[in-house]
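Re: that chain you flagged

S.,

Sorry for the slow reply, it's been a week of failed gels. I finally had a moment to sit down with the sequence you sent. For the record, here it is as I used it:
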Amino acid sequence: MTSLERILAVCAGKIPDRVPFLLASREFSSRQAGMSLLDCYTQPERYIDSQVRLVDEFGLDGVYDIWCTPAVDELLGATLEFSSSDSASIPNGSVSCLDDVKRLPKVDPRREGRAPYLLDVVRRLKKAVGDSVAVIAWASSPFRTASMLRGVTDFYRDLKRDPAFAHALLNAVHGPCTAYGKALVEAGADIVCSSNPGANMQCISRPYYEEFSHPYTREMFGAIRQQGAKAVMFHTCGKWDDRLDLVVKENIDIVHCDRVDIAGFKAKYSGSAVLMGNLRAVEVLLQGTEESVGRAARECLAQGKEGGRYILSADCSVPRDTPAGNVRAMGAAVRDSGRYDRGDGEK
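Prediction finished late last night. Pasting the structure tokens below so you have them in one place:
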């Protein structure tokens, strides 16, 4: 099977030749290529080559765009800053009242701002890997973009004190977020991924999630699937245990989990979504040895492999200083322990 066929097989509830292997790897691949994060926004060919090299050298089944770049937020007025530590952030909100929401510009992410550059990276990635390897591209969810434009703390206050304003802002950003997700599909992304770290159970309660995040995300992902995305992936950060039942109803095919019990998730939700994860990115992949990484990867495979519907990955993005040997150890574990015996059959 090709890498893309392998991923789509688990999404369809079928048993592939082996467990797929994916890593969110923007920082790691750029470091391996001797690039800073800023270089990724000015030297597309080098970034693309760094992603393709990970497929060739480590056996990954997919390549990623310049993950988690808030291009839509920028278009809507946010200021993106790059620090000396090689990270990008939006330090201050740009929306303070309902009039600001009404003044948000009408934007076309296919033609404006940083978005066309990012879309071109997706096109080049797809051209580089062809139809055999999955191209995964990131789009911000409405809740995440709204909280960035408003400022996270103020947005949390709005959920309680002025829910009508919060909904007005969410409705205003929903269209641009969805349009960018659709544009990623048009550019060649096989899988559109999103994330919403500020909506986990350590940040907002389940009722707030159900009102202010769930319906907007569900509608956005549904539109992206209708656009032709082969799969939609959602990455959880933090604890999501009390709302995973809502997440798997948001037109999602793959849940990339942070700190979840693999067996427990599969027992509850494997009929609704594929689980991706859950090797510790920092404690194991960054700080461990090749032996400990290989052991942890085999443990993940032992818990997730049976019945399919599982993709091996780290629990979050791979830290930039991760030893290459540790990533190779994950790939070796997949080759040695991730294959299915003939006769395993389909789920």
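What I noticed first: The mean pLDDT is 95.

Talk soon,
D.
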